[in-house]
Amino acid sequence: MIQLKNNRIKALIDPLGGELTSLQYEGREYLWQGSSSSWRGRSPLLFPIIGQSLPHGWEYKDKTIFLDNHGFARQLPFEILEEKEDFCRLGLSNSEETQKHYPFAFVLEVTYKLTESVLKVGFSVNNPQTEDLLFSIGAHPGFNCPLSSGTQFEDYYLEFNRNETISRRYKDEYLTGETSPVLKDQNRLNLNHSLFDRGAIILSGLKSDKITLKSEKTSSSVTMDFTGFPDFGIWTMQKKNAPYVCLEPWFGVDSTQGDSADFEKKEGLIRLKKGQEFSCSYSLTLT
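The line above is the sequence of Aldose 1-epimerase family protein; the predicted structure tokens follow.
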């Protein structure tokens, strides 16, 4: 386990999955610690897909791509490439095993950097092969909700940094094509568990690039800057009334029922030419 710390924040990163497993601010844990009765995860890295494979996978040239939900990166050991008191860099590359299910060569790196009250998480993907590299990537951090004692889940809301008029996209196992309005010229979404009775709130095309989990009953908050990410998920496991919420910036999105099995047509894929590198990052500011 890698420990990063400064005078305000302590973070733990597990080389298995390159996953953030603890995020403490002034001694208080902000990251969901997992539970066998609801969601065991904490902050998995999603790569090389978002969501589930189609029932029979996708076809790419003469190969079939079939992956576990959100891809394999979260289940594999990363190599520690660099480690300092407030910074670390980890890497994962293709193997014979990954290429059985995903026929691409890749070099994936994740970085974690502490600066005062901010944790910045960076992703980079490099294409070392001759043919194009196709992938999605995203983050899935879960936060304790409530953040402070004496408050409860329903005391919290999500505040976007711009007013939004946007509909959520519904999914069953896959996106259904159904949508419904979730915000109308508003920047505040009050949390309650019934919002998630039909699964994640999936948003595409937000104008905002920041979202804050907060409550009027406490000064504790988490602000995520997700500049550049085109899709966003908000989730807690339905029907569990569990005390956490996930804020998920994505490059990519779940497949839609009835989608083509042609992998190149999957919504939201990034395409890298030989030798190209893709990078993105998000940050968490804690109070």
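Note on the example: The helical segments are 96-101. The first strand starts at residue 2 and ends at 5.
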